[in-house]
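Worked example 3. Consider a protein that binds acetyl coenzyme *A.
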Amino acid sequence: MTDSITITDNRSGESIEIPIMNGGVSASEWSKLLPGVWFYDPGFMSTAACESAITYLDGEAGILRYRGYPIEQLAENSTYLEVAYLLLHGELPTIEQYAIWKNEITNHTFIHENVRKRFLEGFHYDAHPMGMLVSAVAALSTFYLDAKEIFDPGSRNKQIIRLIAKMPTLAAAAHRFSVGMPFVYPDNSLDFADNFLSMLWKVAEPRFEANPVLAHALDVLFILHADHEQNCSTTAMRVVGSSHSDPYSATAAAAAALYGPRHGGANEAVIRMLTDIGTIDNVPDFIATVKSGHGQRLQGFGHRVYKSYDPRAKIVKQIAYEVFEVTGKNPLLDIALKLEEIALSDEYFTSRHLYPNVDFYSGLIYQAMGFPMEMFTVLFSIPRTVGWLAHWQEMLDQDSKIARPRQLYIGSEPRDYTPIGGR
Ligand code: ACO
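Given these inputs, the predicted complex is written out as structure tokens:
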């Protein structure tokens, strides 16, 4: 058996044989036979837009690996900062490399005073923190003019460190502003998650001590959300980055893509759904409404790629119980468990391969920890920044083309302009 396909243009009888490489066939080879005939693939359902060595995902088997390491092992044994290094550099750091890396991130957590005072504080009092974050990240490009030097290794590395380090500071600043609390400066003596919690929750105590169970839970959630190959926001990062814009502008575009309820906004939608359902007794009726297909979806269920249980959802569910030991059980948990139980034994969901995704339980944890719903997508943006940057860097190193798909035109034939009075 040859690992190739042969296609024939029935108009001319010409054929071309194309090798199957890494599970794909080259569209440019294909186009040699079919110039001017485009591959119609809305939503990129069947298109591989790049080669990538960062994340492996098998949606049928429910497997997720970063640089070859199973997500379960990383969640169990690693830290977010170590995983960030792994995603960017391809290897886990040595003790010395990790010490330098951690020190670099820790020393770039502060934001320019103008970002906070003039920019963030200029928002309307009820601005959504995710909207604030998207804008603030874009604004950073105006503070670091060297960011345009994307092919200078030193400059590129500096912007990567700045972005990873400043995301929690911007996120916390957006939260403090939205609840009318004064900004808390980073405490560089704290670990990544502890420092973030300090910037969020510190009131008048000289030093904020986060509950270690909650800080650890947040760090694991950061690991689970760090990358997920060519998802919508990462694709936005690659597309915008392919025009060689600076990494802050490209990251802002990626964060904007994450903002939508079909993507990073899903955990907020889950909590709204569970709150609307109200009690366990209402679960069967709710499931019936979803199945009737009148636009209502079971939020936190289903995934473009996973057609079995999302491996991240299993870990999140386990963490939820650890967090509830500290915070008390989120009363919505029982409704979520009942929904899952019914859905996983219902033919409508099983036949469509709809299983809980990472967002089904994460919102319950965030809510129990005291985060307002508006912060959920912001919490997702912090770790996903490293995934976006790893893909951006990989794309630049591959000397990739500018992203510019084709279209199948279905509009009017040529026609003449009619002056307004004659229409
Ligand atoms: N509840 C009920 N039915 C669903 C759901 C759901 N959550 N998801 C998909 N379906 C059904 C669709 O109605 C469709 O049924 P049909 O074949 O009878 O028309 C079938 O399953 C296939 O659905 P598509 O929309 O074609 O699947 P797609 O891969 O395009 O969508 C998506 C994936 C957007 C994630 C979808 O499952 C969904 O809307 N889920 C709820 C929102 C959510 O949880 N998003 C978070 C994703 S994870 C993340 O981004 C971090």
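Take a moment to read the result before moving on. The radius of gyration is 24 Å. The chain has a mean pLDDT of 94.
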